[in-house]
Design brief:
By secondary structure, this protein is an alpha+beta fold. The protein has two domains: 119 residues, Sufe protein. Chain: A, CATH 3.90.1010.10; 73 residues, GMP Synthetase, Chain A, domain 3, CATH 3.30.300.130. The chain is 35% helix and 22% strand. The strands form three sheets. A three-stranded antiparallel beta sheet has the order 1-2-3, with helices on one face. Strands 6-7-8 form a three-stranded mixed beta sheet, covered by helices on one side. A hairpin with a 4-residue loop joins strand 2 and strand 3. Helix 1 packs across helix 2 and helix 2 crosses helix 4. Bound molecules: FE2/S2 (inorganic) cluster. The site of FE2/S2 (inorganic) cluster (FES) has 10 residues, from helix 2 and helix 5.
């Protein structure tokens, strides 16, 4: 018995996480953050086009032991599965595969599962595979901007009230950020905003404007 509130399996995955890192030129990728604790997890996948199976998967966690262990087990559960199968992996399954997580840590495993689902979604969007074609609205854009972090605070752009305007018109999305164009993270933020919004099926152009 370990003296931690974690199973031996959780500790084993925490100490020796599998599939850690990034994939160069991934087919799908995502970064998810937890509002509960501010931690982040990123998931990268490679997909076999013909069989639509996950041929490779890597994760990086900036979270707690539960999050690292869940990220690790999720990569093991997802590898070799079809996208449809991998989408159905639940945090409960991940937790069970780890021999159980303390209930207070549920959000940590949810975060890793969300990361996997978002990476699959990213792949589907980039390959025109999204079935339900909901038109992009201000709300859709805002939801995505909640995943773009301001590196200074580690909090997202929306929560830190840095998005002063969102305009969606004829396939064109304009986002106005309340930071000076010369801000040290302006370019990084611009790239991330474009990366999050561009895959939307009906978006043709993304313009990111920084206020003077
Ligand atoms: Fe933040 Fe676990 S406490 S991921």
């Amino acid at each position: 018995m370990s003296k931690f509130p974690y199973s031996d399996l959780v500790l084993e995955h925490f100490k020796h996480p599998r599939n850690v890192g990034e994939i160069e030129d991934p087919d799908g990728k995502a970064m998810e953050g937890s509002p509960a604790c501010g931690d982040m997890v990123s998931v990268h996948i490679k997909v076999d086009e013909a069989t639509k199976t996950i041929s490779d998967i890597k994760f990086q966690s900036y979270g707690c032991a539960s999050n690292i262990a869940t990220g690790s087990i999720i990569t093991e559960l997802a590898k070799g599965k079809t996208l449809e199968e991998a989408k159905k992996i639940t945090w409960k399954q991940a937790s069970e595969a780890l021999g159980g997580l303390p209930p207070i840590k549920a959000h940590c495993s949810v975060l890793a599962v969300e990361g996997l689902r978002s990476a699959i979604r990213d792949y589907e969007e980039r390959h025109g595979l999204v079935a339900e074609k909901v038109p992009t609205t201000r709300e859709v854009v805002e939801k995505r901007l909640k995943k773009v972090m301001n590196p200074l605070s580690g909090l997202d752009l929306v929560r830190t009230k840095l998005v002063s305007e969102i305009e969606v018109k004829d396939g064109k999305v304009k986002v106005v950020i309340d930071l000076p164009p010369g801000h040290q993270f302006a370019n990084a933020i611009r790239e991330e905003v474009v990366e999050k919004i561009e895959p939307l099926w009906d978006v043709e152009e993304v313009e990111v404007v920084f206020t003077e």
